[in-house]
Structures are given as structure tokens and as C-alpha cells.
């Protein structure tokens, strides 16, 4: 298998994207960071290229992705965006098309916890436990995975769902991975630091274990 050296990271200035950016650069990947506001990226690194691009444009997705070994997307239209549901699905469909057009085989997506099962037959996003103000964004990621990504047969994709509660913390390197069921600790809490999430995502990039499937993480 070809070693991954050059990656495109979409949404690199966001909460998860920035953690992924730091992890990838610390492991000597060449990173093209795709953002809406380049001034937000203050890192200086010879292996980092920062590009401003609109991910709703198929042409721009293609342009930034061509020549990459893999694409990681942490795209989010913004939790306060009133059109977050529609934009998330529409833009992710464009990103997938652009990745394919650019001939990039490996696509890793920062997923949501909403489509994880918290009990037999019950997904978090259908449980009534997700706060109303973030439900449209949570459902958008979940339904993109369930209705579109799971049917994608051309690209070698993964959808990496975090724990229900992901916060800034420390990179412990100690966590558990699973597939479709939310990982909870001994008292029933589902949590992970964004640093450990990023470490596990870049592990998957470097040493692929999952193909055309979702996986998840928790302590």
C-alpha cells in the first residue's frame, strides 16, 4: 500500500480541524489546510500550505484535492448557521464528488455521535437527548452517513464518530475504539478529548484499519 504523505485537511481552523492539523504536522505529513479564513491559522511550518477555498464549489474542491494521497474533512458550516442541515449535506456531497474527480482514493470524515446507537435500535439523534439548538447539525451528519456515505462504493471512506462529549483536554493515547455503538465509561458517560480523537484519526490515516465503514472512540 502506498504510504500517505500529502494530505488535504478541510476545515482546518475549526475545533476538531485544528487538533487534526497539529497532530498531522507533528507526524511530518505535508498538509494543505483548506479554510474560509486563512488568517485564523497562525502556525508556521514548512510542511503546511494554507488555502482559502469554498467547499460548495466542485471546481474548488477538485483544485485543492488533486495530487493528495488522502483527504480529511472536518467541514462544518457553523453551529449557528440557520441552514446547517441543508448546507452540511449539500457541501459534503460536493466534497465527495470533488475528491472522486481529483482521483483521491482515501477520504476520512469527522463524523458526529448522533447516528451512534445508545440502546438496541435507538440512535442518539432519535432519543430526545440532543439539545434542540444543535439537533439540525447533528441530524445532518447522521443522515449524510446513513443515506449517502454508506452507499458510496468508489472512494475508500471512513466516518469517524466521536464520543458524545468531546472537549479540549490532553492527548493520553489511551482510549477504546468501536463501530456503531456509543462507547461509555463505567458510569455511563461517553467522552473523549479532541486531542485523543485527532490522534486516533491520524492513526487511521497512517495505518488504515477501517474501509467504507464508521468507527467510534471513547474512554
From TrEMBL:
Highest taxon in the source lineage: Bacteria
Annotated NAD(P)-binding domain residues: 11-206
InterPro entries: NAD(P)-bd_dom (IPR016040), NAD(P)-bd_dom_sf (IPR036291), Polyketide_Oxido-like (IPR051606)
Gene Ontology terms for molecular function: oxidoreductase activity, acting on the CH-NH group of donors, NAD or NADP as acceptor
Pfam families the record matches: NAD_binding_10
Name this polypeptide is given: NAD(P)-binding domain-containing protein
Amino acid at each position: 500500500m502506498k504510504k500517505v504523505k500529502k494530505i488535504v485537511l478541510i476545515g482546518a481552523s475549526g475545533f476538531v480541524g485544528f487538533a487534526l492539523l497539529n497532530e498531522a504536522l507533528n507526524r511530518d505529513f505535508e498538509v494543505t489546510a483548506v479554510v474560509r479564513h486563512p488568517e485564523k491559522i497562525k502556525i508556521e511550518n514548512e510542511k503546511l500550505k494554507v488555502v482559502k477555498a469554498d467547499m460548495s464549489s466542485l471546481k474548488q474542491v477538485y483544485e485543492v484535492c488533486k495530487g493528495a494521497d488522502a483527504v480529511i474533512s472536518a467541514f462544518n458550516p457553523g453551529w449557528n448557521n440557520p441552514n446547517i442541515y441543508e448546507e452540511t449535506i449539500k457541501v459534503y456531497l460536493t466534497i465527495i464528488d470533488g475528491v472522486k474527480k481529483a482521483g483521491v482514493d482515501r477520504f476520512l470524515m469527522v463524523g458526529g455521535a448522533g447516528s451512534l446507537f445508545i440502546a438496541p435500535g435507538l440512535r442518539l439523534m432519535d432519543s430526545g437527548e440532543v439539545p434542540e439548538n444543535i439537533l439540525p447539525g447533528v441530524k445532518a451528519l447522521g443522515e449524510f452517513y446513513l443515506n449517502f456515505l454508506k452507499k458510496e462504493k468508489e472512494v475508500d471512506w471512513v466516518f469517524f464518530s466521536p464520543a458524545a462529549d468531546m472537549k479540549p483536554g490532553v492527548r493520553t493515547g489511551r482510549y477504546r475504539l468501536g463501530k456503531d455503538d456509543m462507547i461509555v465509561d463505567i458510569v455511563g458517560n461517553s467522552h473523549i478529548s479532541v486531542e485523543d480523537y485527532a490522534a486516533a484519526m491520524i492513526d487511521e490515516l497512517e495505518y488504515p484499519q477501517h474501509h467504507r465503514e464508521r468507527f467510534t472512540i471513547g474512554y
